[in-house]
Amino acid sequence: MTGITELSPYTHPVRLETPRLVLREHCPEDLEPLHAILSDPAVTWYLPGMFKREPVETEAYLRSVMRDAESHHRLRYNLAVTDAATGGLLGSVGLHVIESTPRGAHYGLGYFLCRSVWNQGYATEAARAALDFIFGGNACRVSASCLAENIGSRRVAQKCGMTQEGLLKAHTWHDGQWKDCAVYAILRDEYTDKLWRSSGKT
């Protein structure tokens, strides 16, 4: 990837570990596997803006992600989701500041994964790691939205303890029609409370 290697290494790289995954900063070596994921129409069916037909499009996206990671006042985290055993790239999980206040920031959460690991709990595992990380920082609220028909993503939000806050009618143009969008969110205190209760402490 010509001209992109100067963007790494990072000053304060993020690395998160779960039983099966490692979430880390993206690197130039991610280009080929990342393009394989983002050029798959099934992966980007509910994220049409992320579809990359040509490697040069994926390179531009990867370049912007790596620039975000270098920012001293970081507003976006797009972390590579990798297999803890093999190091292989499985997808990405993203967090971005929607609004920042003196009392904390509101972040949006999103993700995509390659088809080979769908329906195995990887998305929930990655999302929970991202929530642990951001609520350990300056986040006071995290929200996520998806098309109402996207049952898989809705289940991930629910498994992460998020509550559905609303249903936006005919909100998003997709596949030639207007579709409803479900909105989920969780607050720092709610997330901390759920972790406390799940640990068995009273």
> What can be said about the biggest beta sheet?
8 strands, mixed
Strand content: 35-45%
Low-pLDDT parts are 1-7
Q: Numbering strands along the chain, what is their spatial order in the largest sheet?
A: 1-2-3-4-5-6-8-7
Instruction: Report the structural category.
Output: alpha+beta
Global shape: globular
Quaternary structure state of the chains depicted: single chain
* The CATH homologous superfamily of the domain at 5-144: Gcn5-related N-acetyltransferase (GNAT)
What is the CA-CA span between the terminal residues? 52 Å
Task: Count every helix, treating DSSP H or I runs of 4 or more residues as helices.
Answer: 5
Task: Walk me through what this model shows.
This protein is an alpha+beta fold and 202 residues long. It has a domain at 5-144: Gcn5-related N-acetyltransferase (GNAT) (Aminopeptidase). The protein has helices spanning 31-38, 55-70, 122-135, 151-159, 188-198, and strands at residues 15-17, 21-25, 76-83, 89-101, 104-113, 139-147, 163-174, 177-187. Strands 1-2-3-4-5-6-8-7 form an eight-stranded mixed beta sheet, with helices on both faces. The longest helix has 16 residues, at 55-70. The chain is globular and about 40 Å long. The protein starts with 14 loop residues before the first strand and ends with a helix. The model is unreliable at 1-7 (pLDDT under 50).
